[in-house]
DNA sequence: TTGTAAGCGTTATCAC
DNA sequence: GTGATAACGCTTACAA
């Protein structure tokens, strides 16, 4: 169906080795031969088979990307960054959405293995949090014998390069902003505390509170799980049934912020008036919808680019020491860190 | 590095053909041999090389997906639908974001061609709208000799299966809702009128207006281009400098709706009070943010699933007649189709 | 029921 | 400078 290197060789009246040399710019080729080959390539609209090349070269030009929540704005933006670099390098991106499901993730890893990709970019599915699950994931990943870059969610005790976020600092800055905003009582809707990123953000909260000698009150610690629904339920119940509403809130990721906002909006409560709040991570469309919501920002697109660049670097320098890129957290004020 | 079929054959003490037969469930294999092979496969954690398989079978298990705007919620959701089916079928998804850039798209098509994919899902980049550009795209696509499914944006006079939207009806329903809402003057922020989907939506608007004997007033026709920025500028200028503000608006895609809303929010104008509006396509987070905004909805996730299913169907039935799937448009009222 | 061998479209190693 | 030829890891007649 498609033309092969032999068709080009025939058409250009040279051997396929010469065609290959021209295409790969390797070895000596006379100007004449080069022209003939290029002409034939153009005329037949020939593009070499990546499969055949991969097989022959024993390496592909393909990277795998496994992402857990395509509906989350954060990952969409991340993917754009990844895609950008891949395109520029003329590589190919193989994508799968693991939907935070370890089973799906395991399947995807098999697919990735079958594709003999050059490397893998992975944000682990939520579930990998217990020691045991964690070890299993590490085992699966090691079995790939591949350059891997872990993004956003760290895998404890793992050897791979990482692109992470200043999680502690994010929690710290958010809390600090609320304290400076004059809030006396500050609550937090945590993430899934099985995940390190959730614990780190929480630790940042604790640290800021302690620094200011504010007593940690357990009734203000709300156990979320990084989903909008849970945050919504927590918030709704809180404002309905309890007088234990703190002045200010830290919401630990964009999904939680969304759930939190939804509940407060339903009750006609105004951020920056009826309560104070600082979220971690930007919410999509917040600017467009003119929604007042102070948050801790990071450059997600850049995270994607960095991750892919590190992966490429790693595949060229396999013995280099472990690389870690930690994206800074930045407080963006839209006024909601103060109450009233 | 990775194990090969020969390693399995050696370990199981059979020939590689037998291994292949077991793996592919083809031909006769004794129970004994099967067990030995499976054992070896498991022990060595063997996964066949998709590249070698593809080369040998002269067909891959891979589909290409080219999408023009990953930042648009519509396409994210679409991608989820595509991804779902791909995963279930044990296929592999190769992804590229063309960023509405024909040059990038052309590059991506070359990449796709090199990968010898089984088929291609494509939403063409915006630019392909002039007759000439259109023909060029058709030529490029034909040169692929591949099953192709065109999604959302039709390519006129093209032979490929399509999954489209009731564009005319969307414009019609939106306008009708505004008319029923009692609005006397109704404007429209159109999409990029080079695109058929924009013209169809506009035609729906015209039709509804005529049906109700409402005069079309050119000063209420605003030439947008499906981007938020343009809609924002149009809306901003309109409310600032002109007394020619219609009672109601049709905004022709979600990006335009976002830009429109942003401008009105900035001016503290309230949908359903200061003006009426019905948008085409859902805006992300509209429910969560409790933003009143009536719109014309479609099941985007399903569109993705359908598209991939059609692609698979097509690759199994190459001679089947052209398939067209048109997703229905449904009006969702959140009250903003009325003014005051 | 199993193994041998040719072939898939490349690259790479050699002679020439 | 160039062209055979082996090799990459698999599938698939065909032979046994």
What does this structure look like?
- 2 copies of one chain form a homodimer.
- With 340 residues, the first copy, chain A, is α/β, with parallel strands linked by helices.
- Chain A has 3 domains: 5-48, 434 Repressor (Amino-terminal Domain); 62-165 and 300-328, Response regulator (Rossmann fold, 3-Layer(aba) Sandwich); 167-297, 3-Layer(aba) Sandwich (Rossmann fold), CATH 3.40.50.
- Helices cover 46% and strands 15% of the residues of chain A.
- The first copy, chain A, is built from 12 helices and 12 strands.
- In chain A, the strands form 2 sheets. In chain A, strands 2-1-3-4-5-11 form a 6-stranded parallel beta sheet, with helices on both faces. A 6-stranded mixed beta sheet of chain A has the order 7-6-8-9-10-12.
- In chain A, helix 11 links the parallel strand 8 (248-251) and strand 9 (276-280).
- The N and C termini of chain A lie far apart (70 Å).
- The interface between A and B is large, with 56 and 57 residues.
- Chain B binds a DNA duplex (16 and 16 nucleotides) through helix 2 and helix 4.
């Amino acid at each position: 169906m498609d033309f092969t290197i032999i068709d080009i060789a025939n058409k250009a009246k040279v051997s396929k080795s010469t065609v290959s040399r021209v295409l790969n710019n390797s070895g000596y080729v006379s100007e004449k031969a080069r022209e003939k080959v290029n002409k034939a390539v153009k005329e037949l609209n020939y593009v070499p088979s990546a499969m055949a090349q991969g097989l022959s070269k024993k390496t592909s030009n393909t990277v795998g990307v496994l992402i857990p929540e395509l509906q989350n704005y954060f990952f969409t933006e991340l993917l754009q960054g990844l895609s950008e670099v891949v395109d520029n390098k003329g590589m190919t991106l193989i994508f799968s959405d693991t939907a935070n499901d370890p089973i799906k993730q395991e399947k995807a890893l098999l697919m990735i293995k079958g594709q003999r990709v050059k490397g893998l970019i992975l944000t682990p599915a939520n579930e990998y949090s217990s020691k045991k699950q964690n070890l299993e994931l590490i085992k699966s990943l090691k079995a790939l014998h591949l350059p891997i870059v872990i993004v956003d969610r760290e895998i404890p005790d793992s050897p791979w390069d990482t692109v992470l976020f200043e999680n502690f600092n994010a929690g710290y800055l958010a809390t600090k902003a609320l304290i400076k905003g004059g809030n006396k009582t500050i609550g937090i809707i945590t993430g899934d505390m099985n995940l390190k990123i959730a614990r780190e953000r929480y630790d940042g909260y604790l640290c800021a509170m302690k620094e200011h000698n504010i007593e940690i009150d357990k009734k203000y610690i709300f156990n979320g799980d990084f989903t909008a629904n849970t945050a919504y339920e927590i918030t709704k119940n809180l404002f309905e049934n309890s007088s234990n509403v703190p002045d200010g809130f830290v919401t630990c990721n964009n999904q939680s912020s969304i759930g939190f906002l939804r509940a407060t909006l339903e009750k006609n409560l105004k951020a920056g008036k009826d309560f104070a709040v600082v979220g971690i991570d930007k919410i999509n469309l917040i600017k467009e919808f003119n929604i007042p919501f102070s948050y801790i920002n990071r450059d997600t697109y850049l995270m994607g680019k960095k991750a892919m660049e590190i992966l490429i670097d790693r595949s060229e320098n396999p013995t280099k020491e472990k690389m870690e890129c930690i994206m800074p957290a930045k407080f963006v004020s839209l006024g909601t860190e103060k109450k009233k």
